[in-house]
Amino acid sequence: MTIRPAELIEAKRNGHEHSAADLTELILAYARDEVPDYQMAAWCMAVYFRGLTGAETYTLTDAMIRSGETLDLGAALGRRVVDKHSTGGVGDKTSIAVGPIVAACGVPFGKMSGRGLGHTGGTLDKLESIPGFRVELTTDEFVTQLREIGLAIVGQTADLVPADKKLYALRDVTATVDIVPLIASSIMSKKLAAGADAIVLDVKVGAGAFMKTRDDAVILAEQMIDLGRRAGRQVVCLLTDMSQPLGAAVGNALEIREAVDTVRGGGPADFTELVVDACARLLALSDLDIDVEEGRRRAEAAVADGSALDAYERWIRAQGGNPSLEQLPVAPVLRQVTASRAGVVTTVDALAVGIAALELGAGRRTKTDAIDHAVGVVCRAKRGDPVEAGDVLAEVHAADENSAAVAAQAVLAAYALGDGSLRRPDVVLDVLQ
Ligand code: URA
């Protein structure tokens, strides 16, 4: 079939619905380099203004999956396979704690993750702060490790959903990332192609997330649930708070430490709440045939009896890494950010803390930037915490005194103090399914 991209751009610009055949061919032709970037960029911008119907969004997702290879992990393992995905936030190290707990409960957890761009960190970058850890496994190595130790987190292989890889890079530089049906199809195409039977999605809401408001997050969640339903998979969406950083640590090695503390039972309260909730829902969707409450009980037991920590250490060794926290890089400069007066923390602006960590070198502005795994910010006080004048609000871990001073100012400005009291906010705001 020959398509004329200019006609499809015009049709979308004028608000018409594409036929499944036209849209599929547009995406497959783009993946084959037969449609130039400038036409695809114009089409994305037309979608920004006109949107896609549910049927179009599903067709787009399906076409992206068909642009590459797919995995059938369920068949390879002879098990029902569960997966999780977060839409991205500041301090979001959830998968690194969830994986070992779920694996310790006897459910295989195999996940393909991404790298961070901008103020949101990526799971692969965090894992690469562990000396020796390999994120690039072949598909065979991935499946074998999953079968043998029940846990693997790797980079997405180039053959899986290549159309999304190309389209996402284009959207990134043409102001077309924040389009709900394009985000929904991008995320779900990768999850469906990787072969999960059931998926727990963590849709972040607030200053540090793509979705700034709860209403927008609900629309994204509903579209992803709909895509899962159309593909015959079960999807549960947690709407979670990203107005302040998740947990305390923001920055790669610092987040690994916090994830391990949490797997041991000593993590921050908000992060632990989200980790246990996500584990409970993953276990309830697995083939263990248990409900969410029993899932929660088993997740907590795996933390308490040390089996989750054992699973973490087995996993890190299997991917070539050294699980000892002593081996993680440490930043040379540590600077404390203190409260100038007594009060209650009312705001810890997630975006501002994320950008401060990025400026310290914890993240990358462009795909080729190198990361300093040691640096970052640790938020010792969170919303609802009372503080006295002089108390430590946060710590800045920096490569030198100059960058430490700049980050300390930015982190101080991310905090607001009020009078009176404030209930510590919940991290899980809602569950949609
Ligand atoms: N994450 C993705 O994988 N794709 C998007 O479009 C946005 C966030």
Describe what you observe in this structure.
The chain is of the alpha/beta class and 433 residues long. It has 17 helices and 13 strands. The chain has a 4-stranded mixed beta sheet, sandwiched between helices. Strands 6-9-11-7 form a 4-stranded antiparallel beta sheet. Strand 4, helix 11 and strand 5 form a beta-alpha-beta unit. Helix 10 packs across helix 11. The longest helix is centred in the middle third of the chain and has 17 residues. The site of uracil has 7 residues, from helix 10.
Quick description:
This protein is an alpha/beta fold and about 425 residues long. It is about 45% helix and about 15% strand. It contains 17 helices and 13 strands.
Key descriptive features of the protein:
433 residues, alpha/beta, four-stranded mixed beta sheet, globular, binds uracil
Write the layout of secondary structure elements.
Layout: H1 5-13, H2 20-31, H3 37-50, H4 54-66, H5 73-77, E1 82-86, H6 94-104, E2 109-113, H7 123-127, H8 139-149, E3 151-155, H9 162-172, H10 180-193, E4 198-205, H11 214-230, E5 234-241, E6 249-250, H12 252-263, H13 269-285, H14 292-304, H15 307-318, E7 333-338, E8 343-348, H16 350-360, E9 376-379, E10 386-387, E11 392-398, H17 401-414, E12 415-418, E13 428-432
Parallel strand pairs: 1-4, 2-3, 4-5
Antiparallel strand pairs: 5-13, 6-9, 7-11, 8-10, 8-12, 9-11
The structure holds uracil.
